[in-house]
Amino acid sequence: MATGSGAADGEALAGGMMNAGAVLRRGALVERPAPRTAPALHVYLRALAERGFDAAPSPVRLTGDGREQLTWVPGDVALPPFPGWAMTKTALRSVGSLLRRLHEASAAVPVDSRAEWPRALADPEGGTMLCHNDVCPENVVFRDGRAAALIDFDLAAPGRPLWDLAMTARYWVPMLDPESAASLYPAGLDAPARLRVLADGYGLSPRERAELPSVVEAATASCRAFVAGRVAAGDPEYGRVLAERGGWQRWDRVQGWLVNHRETFTAALLT
Ligand SMILES: Nc1ncnc2c1ncn2[C@@H]1O[C@H](COP(=O)(O)OP(=O)(O)O)[C@@H](O)[C@H]1O
Ligand SMILES: [Mg+2]
């Protein structure tokens, strides 16, 4: 979606918060601020492609001025308020299976231990493989109603695949009480049933199904701490979105709802 800049500068892309207004499309390329880990991420993305994972942008180059170029991935990206086509069961299942494909490829790529992987939304337990950590609708490209590619690896860090799936569930189920979900998602989404669809699409093991609800709770607490950090640092975009979406009260409500429904989610996942 274009938000204004002239063609010579490229077209500013909507959908991001961390790099709002700074991600530009120039024909077949996307140019964006390079995260600190960009050199290691480019190596990682090339290694994924060598292992047959074709569902991510290809890195093209780092520019001299702190930006990076990647290939533009054709398709549709759902932006809030999320449209019905992005929230079908087929879409959800496809997000699960795409994440599984990423993890299978990623498990075979050695993690660059010299890179300073961001800790913000990473698995506090750490891990031996790189996870995406930010598989929100704005970071998934769809074609024909199915998830076709993951973009925006800025928050990638070592972790457990289960943590990545929990983060993904937060955004795609979504793991929100109905009142909190109402402003962003179509009405009537059945969270326990959808968590099951995502886990099935991923092919989650029984042992990890039993753990998933509590890992979602931990991931939610990490996200809250991340937002608190951005707001405390004076980030205007995060401050605005926090206020617009009901402030800290909303986070309290979501966290209470997750705890109250833990057993319901476990039953939906295991029966
Ligand atoms: N390689 C790409 N292919 C297609 N669309 C992209 C690509 N990179 C970014 N976009 C679009 O631009 C938006 C913002 O880019 P993103 O890199 O996710 O920014 P941010 O870091 O701010 O989240 C995305 O939500 C998506 O719509
Ligand atoms: Mg993004």
CATH topology: Aminoglycoside 3'-phosphotransferase, Chain: A, domain 2
CATH 4th-level superfamily: Aminoglycoside phosphotransferase (APH), C-terminal lobe
Strand content: 5-15%
Please write the string of helix (H) and strand (E) elements. EEEHEEHEEEEHHHHHHH
Annotation field: number of helices: 9
Radius of gyration: 18 Å
Bound molecules: adenosine-5'-diphosphate, magnesium ion
Strand order of the largest sheet: 1-2-3-5-4
Sheet having the most strands = 5 strands, antiparallel
CATH class descriptor name: Alpha Beta
Structural class: alpha+beta
* Straight-line N-to-C gap: 42 Å
The name of the CATH architecture is: Alpha-Beta Complex
Stretches with pLDDT under 50, minimum 5 residues: 1-7
Helix content: 40-55%
Shape: globular
Structure commentary:
The chain is an alpha+beta fold and 271 residues long. It has one domain (1-271): Aminoglycoside phosphotransferase (APH), C-terminal lobe (Aminoglycoside 3'-phosphotransferase, Chain: A, domain 2), CATH 3.90.1200. Helix content is 44%, strand content 13%. The chain has 9 helices and 9 strands. It has helices spanning 38-50, 89-106, 161-172, 178-181, 191-202, 206-232, 236-244, 247-260, 262-270, and strands at residues 11-12, 24-26, 29-33, 59-62, 67-71, 129-131, 140-143, 146-150, 157-159. The strands form 3 sheets. Strands 1-2-3-5-4 form a 5-stranded antiparallel β-sheet, with helices on one face. The chain has a two-stranded antiparallel ribbon with strand order 6-9. Helix 3 packs across helix 6 (206-232), helix 5 (191-202) crosses helix 9 (262-270) and helix 6 (206-232) runs antiparallel to helix 8 (247-260). The radius of gyration is 18 Å and the shape is globular. Adenosine-5'-diphosphate (ADP) binds at residues 13, 15-20, 23, 30, 32, 57, 70, 72-73, 77, 138-139, 141, 151-152, 154.
